[in-house]
Design the sequence.
């Protein structure tokens, strides 16, 4: 008897426009944060006179840092949205009989 509940849960947890906007803002802010870290690392390398290290740290911060933090925020927001749905609908899908 839990199948209709699970089907409803799958429909409800799908991102809607508001959730998508939050995810977009979080991704944009994370990318800006990653770029800020990259610029700090770049300037630190320039101050120390090591151009290779500054370029490498800049590249790593942009290529690795920003997407990783964006993924963490996206997963966190989706999880929070699923928890909100769970609170509003009285427990996890398999809990209702």
Sequence:
């Amino acid at each position: 008897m839990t199948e209709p509940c699970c089907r409803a849960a799958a429909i409800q947890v799908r991102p809607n426009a508001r959730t998508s906007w939050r995810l977009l803002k979080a991704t944009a802010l994370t990318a800006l944060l990653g770029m800020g870290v990259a610029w700090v690392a770049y300037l630190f390398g320039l101050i120390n006179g090591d151009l290779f290290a500054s370029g490498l740290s800049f590249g790593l911060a942009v290529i690795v840092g920003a997407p990783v933090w964006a993924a963490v925020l996206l997963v966190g927001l989706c999880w929070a949205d699923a928890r909100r749905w769970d609170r509003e609908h009285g427990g996890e899908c398999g809990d209702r009989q």
User: Anything to note?
Assistant: The two ends are 7 Å apart (CA to CA). Residues 3-90 form one domain. The longest helix spans residues 51-88. Helices lie at 3-13, 17-48, 51-88.
